[in-house]
Give the backbone structure.
Amino acid sequence: MARSARRAWTAGVRNQLWLTGLFLALLGVFMITGSRAFTGWPMYESLLSTLPLYGFLALGLTLVVAAGEMDLCFPATLAVAGFGFAVIATHTGEGWLGLAAALLIGLGIGLCNGLLVAYVGVPSIIATIGTQFFWRGAVMLMSQGLALGLADLTDSPVRLALVGRLGGHIPMQALWLLALAGVLWLVLNRHPLGDAVRFTGEQADVASRLGIDVPRARLGVHTLMGGIAGLAGAVGCMEMGSWWPTQGDGYMLLVFAAVFIGGTSVFGGSGKVYGTLVGIAIVGMIEAGIVSSGLSGFWTRAVHGMVIVVSVSAYAVLSGNADERLLRL
């Protein structure tokens, strides 16, 4: 048993070292091919201000996937929570009330998803596809397809606290992303909930026989994902200075790419918080690097897809247990 655990730990370290090496290699390539952009601070400040929005979602999704579940509703959750933030903040003039509303809306949507999956028995991919369409349609009806400006919140305390610039240069949302990553790493690796999530993702039947409340674990990860999406919706509105009806569109590929590039198993049972952080950095750097290198932006999606396939394949080979997992499916 100890030997098996040691082997798994060694494989995990090897995978994360491989991922870090990939990140450094890509950074080196882009510093050479797009040196004017990648050797100046403005590029990194831009990345640190935009990537945390995807990073919040990717960290939440890491726990969902580790539990053997899927959540395809988070783009719509982000949009609805952002709309709630914009409406409450503009009508009351209190950004903190808007933030509380966004978090409650996100938690509520996540709770509904979790109840459908954990207690009604609807497969998570089906449940969250359905709720994604429902909430996206609902927010378009509520907003009548019109954007909402947030100019009055430019100097509000909540905006300065969440998306201001520390020392005039470092985006606050990047620091909040690191704080969230630290909390989720502790939950996943040093808390009973993390054990329940991993056992549920590995083999739910065995987890139930061991006394783990599998429905509760599934409910927990979906609710947490909703709350994080609510936070991301509010942060996105404050960073952009407005809410827009298509908020969240196009996020799904980038978020899933970060999670799977980061080494979280597509089969469930394990989650890599550090890997997800590096994965979101790689995803953002690819897009910026392609454009700064003089290539067409149309290359971005193709390269993202190639990196996902190569990364997942490399993890399967390095872990040495791809066949076993496929048989378990």
